[in-house]
Amino acid sequence: MNGRDDRGQATVEAALALSLFVVVVLAAAQIAVVVRNEIAIELAAREAARAATVAADAAHAAQVAAERATSLPVAVSTRRSTDAVTVTVTYATPTDVAILGRLLPPIEHRVTVTMTIEPPPGGR
Q: CA-CA distances (angstroms) from residue 123 to 30, 55, 59, 73, 118?
């Protein structure tokens, strides 16, 4: 031996590496949640716009379609012109994963879809 006591060195190194590994895994989990919610909001926006193009009450149809497309509590806004409907679906993903959640603000998802209004069956 060289006169130094090296006992415990491996334990300290493992503790440091493990803490870094845990932070990386938690960050990956938060990213997965954000990506999943982004995909869900995109789907909800498309479904809401599609429903709004064929309904007399575009705003109500868009809200119902968005709520059916995802279980997330989304906000839906609808703007209708003479030949198109624009639907915007918004949701803020809370960053509540342990350790990282307190460091990051909520991540807002906003998807806007515009579709042409379809004529009623049998023409106008």
A: 49, 15, 23, 36, 9
pLDDT tens-place string over residues 1-17: 455 667 788 888 888 99
- Check if the beta carbon of residue 51 is closer than 8 Å to that of residue 77: no
Whether 30 and 93 have beta carbons less than 8 Å apart is answered as no
Residue 45 has pLDDT above 60, yes or no: yes
The pLDDT score that the predictor gives to residue 61 is 96
Report phi then psi at 91, rounded to 5. -155, 140
Q: Which among 108, 112, 26, 122 has a CA at the least distance from the CA of 72?
A: 108
Report the alpha-carbon distance of residue 44 to residue 69 in Å, rounded. 5
Distance CA 20, CA 28 (A): 12
